[in-house]
Amino acid sequence: MTVGSAWCSPAVLLLLSSPSLWAAQISCRNEDGEAVDWFALYKLPKYTRGEDAGLGLQYLYMDALVQDWQLSKYLINMTQGALGQTLRQLYEAYESKSNNTAYAIYNDEVPHSDSTSWKRGHTKGFLLLDKSQGFWVIHSVPLFPPFPEDGYGYPVSGQSYGQTAICITFKYDQFTEIDQQMLSSNPQIYSCSLPSAFQADLPNLQKLCARSRLPSAPLHHLSKLQSAGGEAFLHFVKSHSFVDDIYVAWVAQELKTDLLAESWQHSGRKLPSNCSLQYHVYNINLIGTPLNSTFHSIEDHSKWSVSKKNEDQWTCIGDLNRAAEQAWRSELHARDLTAQERAGTLHWGQLW
């Protein structure tokens, strides 16, 4: 929040695509229920030091058209918020039981369950699409979102610590690439619908929904994705066979930049800052917000990193802890989902 950064998007076509042109289509939704190409949010922890101590439900919001962090007028457990507005489309698709839409919800910690799956990827998210387009949300909140039959809600367990989420709208053809990423990430899907019309294009998602055996996955794979509005994103994913710290061993070296990394530091063996390779990864200890408040990294369950150098700035958001035991789990490194090749194009991370 005090480190300047932007995203991984050489394209600047986003503002040329008016949201009203695809307002009726499946897409990320802002807090007015309007279609947006992408949004990002940062839920603040319950306890912060400064002028504005939070409730554990307040969040900062930014999207393709509002490219500065703003404190949301809603709380994260309200249906009017960006997550609630976006998820409403998925819940409506569930209720309609339409064969024209497909969805999947996954989390390594499932609502109404006390167990955590160590056989699946440490990855959290949900997606909804039809044959035209859809959205993909990646977040850091355990036990979220609720099953569609339960309606929208936010878990009490997700209030104490900081959390992040990112939503991106994609045209249909991009979901075939996302399906390939699912092969390596091996997410724990707990609610899904994949009608026959989608199965040939999304074979890995079909197997995950059916709990069938997946084919062999590559150790890791980097995908270049393009949003419906023309923004380019990078997505890093590793399988459980890639036994290493993904930040140090791959992401920083691939992006050719030092990274400042924020991660969950309550459990497991915390990894120290690492300067062993050409490009280094440094742990963040203190986060400052636009609300003149600060909080320590130990109060943050979100996972993000930003580049340290001034040119070719990158911002990465996702769901992978920087901890030793994470090396043995297949992970969707969604926090690297966004990284911008041209500094200043979106200015989305200028407050980090």
UniProtKB/TrEMBL annotation:
InterPro entries (UniProt xref): DNase_II
Keyword field contains Signal: yes
Pfam families, A to Z: DNase_II
Family membership: Belongs to the DNase II family.
Protein name: deoxyribonuclease II
Recorded superkingdom: Eukaryota
Catalytic activity: Endonucleolytic cleavage to nucleoside 3'-phosphates and 3'-phosphooligonucleotide end-products
Primary enzyme class: hydrolase
A GO cellular component annotation in the UniProt record: cytoplasm
Keywords: Hydrolase, Signal
BP terms from Gene Ontology: apoptotic DNA fragmentation
Segment forming the signal sequence: 1-23
Native source organism of the sequence: Anser brachyrhynchus (Pink-footed goose)
PANTHER family associated with the record: DEOXYRIBONUCLEASE II, DEOXYRIBONUCLEASE-2-BETA
Molecular function GO labels: deoxyribonuclease II activity
E.C. number: 3.1.22.1
